[in-house]
From TrEMBL:
The keyword Signal applies. InterPro entries: Peptide/Ni-bd, SBP_5, SBP_5_CS, SBP_5_dom. This is Extracellular solute-binding protein. Belongs to the bacterial solute-binding protein 5 family. PROSITE patterns: PROKAR_LIPOPROTEIN, SBP_BACTERIAL_5. One of its GO terms (cellular component) is ATP-binding cassette (ABC) transporter complex.
Length: 584
């Protein structure tokens, strides 16, 4: 999909969608019948089995439901959802879930244990690289890999790991995992309608066909096109510009107050802000803190909540094994491109880290809020050592490192690098422009080309190791530091294809943290990992960024008491589910 300024046709389509939303507000239950959300990004998938980004997750968590969920604003306390209770046994190696009666899927099919069994087996079988099923597989099979990459995985192992005992769902783990329940609260572990899934062409759930489903790309799967969950909202339609959902009349719990939800893709920030100020959008991807404070705060009909907890970590990757020959230019250190292993040189990485002006980024993008970070771990999490100094912006150090890089060839010959950021992301564009300006100021032979791309394209390219440098980040799947540290720094972690590095010492430390319940020892190890990762300059670290969210002041159900940053929707909106919102 091409990125950049939208065509006139797209602009007209967006206007039509906005007018349609306004008309919908006057239908059904009156002026408060429609919630309109405008965002810059597309929605990669609606299949929980491969949902692993916030754009998809914010939809999935409202159409589907998990066995359990976070209670209120807590990051650690869990409460039942599709389960009514659970029991742990065998030293933490067995969990038995009693499931809720009287629950229907959007097709009208009754929710049964067989649906949960199918869901988790499907997640273990497919375990695509663009899903969160690696951490489910770690818990239930003892490996993050799927059966294509780990031949020890058999159907018997999968079938034994999750099965129904009557209408009781039973998980059997190879060893205790204290984070297992938190993992089940992740939106990607939502229960799907197995009868519906099989009917529309998904895996049939049998031993005879499981091998063919291993690692299958589910992004555009039949279930993504035609979802059926138990959530308070059911899917109506989706096209390239909008998604529409409607309150599910047969929902088992408290009924949603707002009848319709429309998620619109509106690439231009100015257009989103204008719609918001007119009251044609209730929530928007509002840009940076500076944008919000200058353009929205204090305006009629606008409410703002500030200083929301930041539990995400963002950085720029420097891929040491770039697998995209078409983006390398000459592919050599001759001033006309870069080799695929350009970032494998420590001095190159150190130069890029030193050239990123974090203080200016905080001032320009975050309105002065936030602090430099020393590690890709939120400073609100255990394991983050606030006494460890963060990398410093230092152009003299960057110059010295570039002069030593690749035995002096980088400084002598120069380079051309293609770096990527999410299209229409003001923060991403600003960060890349700051880096580009500083690096190019050091040597006229240095050139950094920055390229906006659609989020779905970035996800696909990065997963295949095709991006040289990209701004990306992580929001926790479950509230434990391992979810960040192993994800970013392990040679088996989710980010390994995106960074191309393996550090045996860090791998050893990570394994040690996973095998000790001693919190003090774990924190010591995380400090060691942070120190080594910083010395090796594996990432360009973005600062912390306390949340600020504007919303229309007639939107109810949004408060710090209910705001939970573990919910995907917190990125652009309320940190709660649509069903909890209303209109005054």
């Amino acid at each position: 999909m091409k990125s950049g300024i939208p065509t006139r046709a797209l602009a007209l389509a967006t206007l039509a969608l906005t007018l349609a939303a306004c008309n919908n507000r006057n239908a059904d239950s009156g002026a408060g019948s429609t919630l309109v959300v405008q965002e810059a990004s597309d929605i990669p998938t609606l299949d929980p089995g491969t949902s692993y980004d916030t754009g998809s997750g914010q939809i999935v968590e409202n159409l589907y439901e998990t066995l359990l969920t976070y209670k209120g604003s807590s990051l650690s306390e869990l409460e039942p959802l599709l389960a009514t209770k659970w029991e742990m046994g065998n030293g933490g190696r067995e969990y038995r879930f009693t499931l809720r009666d009287g629950v229907k899927f959007h097709t009208g099919n009754a929710f049964k244990c067989a649906d949960a069994e199918y869901t988790f087996r499907r997640n273990l079988v497919t375990n695509t690289s663009q899903s969160g099923n690696w951490f489910l597989s770690e818990s239930l099979l003892g490996t993050a890999s799927n059966a294509n990459d780990d031949k020890s995985i058999t159907w018997a192992k999968i079938a034994d790991a999750v099965k129904c005992d009557g209408e009781t769902l039973v998980f059997t783990l190879p060893k205790a995992d204290p984070a297992f329940l938190s993992k089940l609260a992740y939106a990607g572990q939502s229960v799907v309608d197995s009868e519906h899934a099989k009917k529309i062409g998904e895996w049939d759930g049998t031993e005879a066909t499981w091998k063919a489903a291993v690692g299958k790309d589910l992004t555009g799967s039949p279930l993504s096109q035609d979802p059926s969950g138990t959530g308070a909202y059911r899917f109506l339609k989706k096209d390239s510009n909008a998604l529409t959902a409607q309150a599910f009349d047969d929902y088992w719990g408290d009924k949603a107050q707002i009848k319709n939800v429309i998620i619109q893709k509106v690439p231009e920030l100015a257009a989103r802000q204008q719609a918001f100020l007119r009251g044609d959008a209730d929530l928007i991807e509002a840009g940076t803190r500076a944008n919000i404070e200058e353009q929205l705060k204090g305006k009629p009909g606008v409410a703002v909540v500030d200083n929301l907890p930041d539990i995400s970590a963002f950085g720029m990757t420097m891929n040491q094994n770039i697998k995209a020959k078409d983006s390398l230019g000459s592919g050599k250190l001759d001033g006309k491109g870069i080799p695929a292993n350009f970032f494998s040189d420590l001095n190159v990485r150190r130069a890029f880290v030193s050239a990123f002006d974090v203080p200016t980024y905080i001032k320009q993008v975050q309105g002065g809020a936030g602090q430099p970070r020393n590690f890709l771990l939120p400073d609100t999490f255990p394991g983050y050592d606030k006494d460890l100094a963060a990398p410093k912006f230092d152009l003299a150090a960057a110059k010295a490192a570039f002069q030593q890089a690749w035995g002096g060839q980088v400084w002598q010959n120069g380079f051309i690098l293609n770096a990527t950021y999410r299209a229409n992301s003001v923060a991403g564009q600003t960060a890349m422009e700051l880096l580009k300006k500083n690096i190019e100021s050091l040597n006229p032979k240095f050139r950094v080309n920055i390229q906006p791309k659609q989020w779905s394209e970035i996800l696909d390219n990065a997963d295949k190791g095709r991006e040289a440098m990209v701004i990306t980040g992580w929001s926790p799947d479950y509230a434990d530091p391992d979810n960040f540290v192993s994800t970013f720094y392990s040679s088996k972690g989710f980010y390994h294809p995106r960074t191309g590095f393996a550090d045996p010492q860090i791998d050893t430390w990570i394994e040690e943290t996973r095998n000790t319940a001693d919190a003090e020892r774990r924190n010591q190890i995380y400090t060691q990992i942070a120190q080594r990762a910083q010395d090796q300059a594996y990432f360009i670290l973005m600062p912390s960024n306390p949340g600020i969210r504007p919303y229309r002041d007639n939107l109810t159900g949004f408060s710090l008491d209910t705001y939970n940053p573990m919910r995907s929707f917190s990125n652009f909106g309320t940190g709660t589910l649509w069903k909890a919102l209303g209109k005054s």
